[in-house]
TrEMBL record:
Domain PPM-type phosphatase: 414-635
Gene3D superfamilies: 2.60.40.2380, PPM-type phosphatase domain
Entry annotated with the keyword Transmembrane helix: yes
InterPro entries, A to Z: 7TMR_DISM_rcpt_extracell_dom1, 7TMR_DISM_rcpt_extracell_dom2, Bact_Sigma-Reg, PPM-type-like_dom_sf, PPM-type_phosphatase-like_dom
Superkingdom of origin organism: Bacteria
Protein name: 7TMR-DISM extracellular 2
Pfam families documented for this protein: 7TMR-DISM_7TM (PF07695), 7TMR-DISMED2 (PF07696), SpoIIE (PF07228)
Length: 647
């Protein structure tokens, strides 16, 4: 509506006058727009009576569909209808816009008294002279007569006035055509919205949901502005009839912009354009939801001004996508050509530049529907591309997961210590890692658990690099004679130097807990680098093993505190990543820390411990937002003999 008004006003001054003349109603009368056959008088006070108006001078209307924008004036139109037929003529005069407030028709044949009738949005449909969504008034012309008509129109909405005059039969034919066309339009728009919802249900891609909402909001905007909502739902609610105009237009612009941002991936392509678009959406939302706080006419004018900026915002988003090489962006820009053409055709018909008929007022509907169809093809292309990319990404993720998993060792050749692992990434691959290694001197066992920041392929790649650095650091101990504590510190610092280089390039870091065990004596050293506390069970007593130190990779010269303890037969250690306690169903966590303490306290073996913590809570079956890893360690025999080195 807003674009239509401003284009019409701009072109008005470029048109030549068609002149005023009497309207002959004979058997060949085909009906149509009669604006350029009338004369007009503006009443700025909106208080003139018919008797006063009859004495005033009128001026010719310059085009077929008068447009006066937002005005507090009342506009009077006068015309002369001549029926040369020997039969009376039953006519219908109707306005092609449903939002006009007050329309009064005065008619008189010969010296008869003036007859008046009133319609408009302020009048319930059931009480209108002709109960239709568009304002319509009946006229009967006696045989071989001349009938003077005066039409008074006043409204707080835009005065866009396609004034039609038809015979009664033509009007009924027009109504049937309109209902059939609108029924087809409504059905296809609803199907397009369902189409988007089906795509969304299979992919959970928000762009498809935004498309469905966008289509539905556009449909509802037309449904309301064309008067059908008034006719069906709120027949006597004047507030909804008026202020909902602002709300539906703002909704259409808001969700149209949201769809453009999502389908064109503006946030990833241009932060500046994304922020401009979000700021624009906020302005539109504020305008829509403050519709009850401001006078209606200025608010609607401001909404119309926003409507001029709407295609500009959409165009900028599309151009950014096209410049980035997006085929979806090209489809999108072509789709927006359809409503642009429809606006030109619609206004050209209003201005008399192209023939006006029953189809004319549906150019905008047809244009938007064309846009919806083209956008649905855009979505289909987007889905095909996304499916192909997802397939390629899945292959990459599976390959990454295989490499990542192959670097993690789940058993050690040690009959005194039994280890069991559980690991579940939230995607195909993830950032959690674990390892159990024996140093090349055959003296110490190293049990490591770590959690790389992030998820998916990037975290998995960094985790694989972490495991490679860990293997290399332990292998470097081959020629050294370091103690257990110094060996753990050396390995931690070596891995940290590698991780710090990755952190500088990717901002990925890792938390880590390391347990070093002397295979001869059972002396144990542990280091905690920003990780969850370990849980130690000895003689049915459980306690957390705390430690101080920053996460791995963030600072190259970090220092870590080493703690020691003596493991004995029957002792257990439980190491885990934070996903074990942070994953939730709704607002409820899968597990709480007290559940872990209770499980390890009651466990007799590491197998029963894992069964209590992992299997009984069905952690393999639950939805996840973070990777989960759990390591259970048990000393099954006293440390009374030297470790037999394998390999």
């Amino acid at each position: 509506m807003s674009a239509k008004y401003y284009i019409v006003v701009f072109l008005f001054y470029m048109l030549s006058s068609n002149g005023w003349g009497a309207i002959a109603i004979d058997d060949s009368f085909g009906g149509g727009l009669i604006g350029n056959k009338l004369e007009v008088l503006e009443d700025p006070s909106a208080n003139l009576t018919l008797a006063e108006v009859v004495e005033r001078d009128f001026s010719a209307v310059s085009f077929a569909a008068p447009v006066y924008g937002y005005s507090e004036s009342a506009f009077w139109f006068k015309g002369l209808l001549i029926n040369d037929s020997s039969e009376p003529k039953n006519l219908v005069l109707n306005i092609g816009t449903a939002w006009i407030d007050h329309i009064t028709l005065y008619s008189r044949s010969g010296e008869q008294a003036w007859h008046s009738q009133t319609t408009g949005i302020y009048y319930p449909i059931a009480k209108r002279p002709i109960p239709e969504s568009q304002p319509a008034l009946a006229l009967t012309l006696p045989a071989t007569s001349q009938t003077d008509i005066y039409l008074r129109i006043a409204s707080s909405d835009a005065l866009i006035l396609p004034i039609y005059l038809r015979t009664e039969a033509q009007f009924q034919s027009y109504l049937r055509f309109k209902e059939h066309l609108y029924g087809a339009f409504s059905g296809l728009m609803i199907l397009a919205a369902v189409y988007g919802l089906i795509f969304f249900s299979f992919t959970l891609n928000k762009a498809y949901l935004a498309y469905a909402i966008n289509v539905f909001v556009w449909f509802f905007m037309f449904f309301h502005l064309d008067g059908y909502a008034t006719e069906i739902f709120w027949k006597d609610n004047l507030w909804l009839n008026k202020y909902l105009n602002v709300l539906v237009v703002c909704f259409a612009m808001f969700f149209g912009t949201q769809f453009a941002i999502l389908i064109l991936e503006t946030q990833q392509r241009s932060r500046l354009v994304y922020r401009i678009s979000i700021g624009w959406m906020v302005m539109v939302a504020i305008t829509g939801f403050t519709c009850t706080l401001a006078p209606y006419a200025p608010l609607m004018e401001f909404t119309a001004a926003l409507g001029l900026a709407f295609p500009v915002v959409i165009l900028i988003n599309g151009i950014v996508a096209v410049k980035a090489g997006s085929m979806v962006g090209k489809f999108f820009l072509v789709s927006w050509g359809s409503p642009a053409i429809s606006i030109v055709l619609f206004n050209s018909s209003l201005l008399g530049l192209i023939p006006s008929n029953e189809l004319t007022q549906f150019y905008l509907h047809i244009g938007v529907f064309g846009e919806v169809i083209l956008l649905s093809l855009t979505l289909a292309y987007h889905l095909r591309t996304a499916t192909k990319e997802a397939s390629n990404a899945k292959v990459i993720m599976e390959t990454t997961a295989i490499v990542h998993t192959s670097l993690m060792k789940e058993a050690i050749p040690q009959d005194q210590i039994e280890l069991h692992f559980r690991h579940k990434p939230c995607e195909i691959s993830g950032g959690d890692l674990y390892n159990c290694l024996i140093d090349p001197r055959g003296k110490f066992i190293y049990i490591v658990i770590a959690d790389v920041s992030g998820h998916g392929i990037p975290a998995s790649i960094i985790a694989s690099a972490f495991l490679g650095a860990l293997d290399s650091a332990i292998d470097q101990l081959r020629s050294s004679d370091l103690s257990l504590e110094d060996s753990c510190q050396s390995v931690t610092k070596t891995v940290n130097r590698v991780m710090s280089r990755y952190y500088q390039q990717t901002n990925h870091f890792a938390s880590m807990a390391m347990v070093g065990i002397d295979s001869l004596s059972g002396s144990t050293c542990y280091i905690n680098a920003g990780h969850r506390a370990l849980i130690h069970k000895s003689h049915s007593k459980c306690q957390p093993l705390l430690g101080r130190g920053s996460v791995m990779g963030m600072f190259e010269d970090s220092q870590w505190q080493s703690r020691t303890l003596q493991l004995q037969a029957g002792d257990m250690l439980l190491l885990f990543t934070d996903g074990l306690l942070e994953n939730q169903i709704g607002d409820k966590a899968f597990l709480k820390e007290r559940d872990l303490f209770r499980a390890i306290k009651n466990a007799h073996t590491v197998e029963s411990l894992l069964n209590e913590v992992w299997d009984q809570h069905r952690l393999d079956k639950l939805p996840m937002e973070d990777d989960m890893t759990l390591i259970a360690v048990e000393v099954v025999k006293p440390f009374d003999r030297q470790l037999t080195q394998i390999g």
